Amino acid sequence: MKKLIIINGPxxxxxxxxxxxxxxxxxxxxxxxxxxxxxxxxxLEHFQSNIEGEIIDKIQEVGFSYDGVILNAAAYTxxxxxIGDAVKxxxxxxxxxxxSNTFSREKFRHKSFISPNAKGVILGFGLLSYExxxxxxxxx
Length: 140
Ligand code: DQA
Fold this sequence. Notes:
The structure is a single chain. α3 (about 50-60) packs parallel to α4 (about 80-90). The protein has a single domain, classed as Rossmann fold (3-Layer(aba) Sandwich), CATH 3.40.50.9100. By secondary structure, the protein is of the alpha/beta class. It has a 5-stranded parallel β-sheet, sandwiched between helices. The radius of gyration is 14 Å and the shape is globular. It is built from 5 helices and 5 strands. The mean pLDDT is about 95. β3 (about 70), α4 (about 80-90) and β4 (about 95-100) form a beta-alpha-beta unit. 1,3,4-trihydroxy-5-OXO-cyclohexanecarboxylic acid binds near residues 77, 98 and 99.
């Protein structure tokens, strides 16, 4: 059974309340419960933090033993050399995901410190982006 973790960065705890025109009406807990049911053959975990160092700690903790990390570093994607370095440091493959199409938004969202060291990047499909990342780990 594949062991995967979804790591969510700042403000993603507000899904369902936050800019619903961009991020939708579902809370992450509602969505997470549905995917846990949908993928009974995947060992799935979820971690969210608004704190950069806690995200780095979690990446280091799981990054040598899990089969995959699904990382939405949210705003830190565009600013964090530290999270980028953590992704580079670990052996577990990381798929970067975003709910929105960051390339159709402000220019500062076009830069990612994660992408150069990610296995792949999935963005713009709403919460389905996370499911596509799970599927990618199930296929290889
Ligand atoms: C996001 C896109 C980021 O630019 C933004 O800061 C977020 C969410 C997304 O999932 O679309 O908080 O990562």
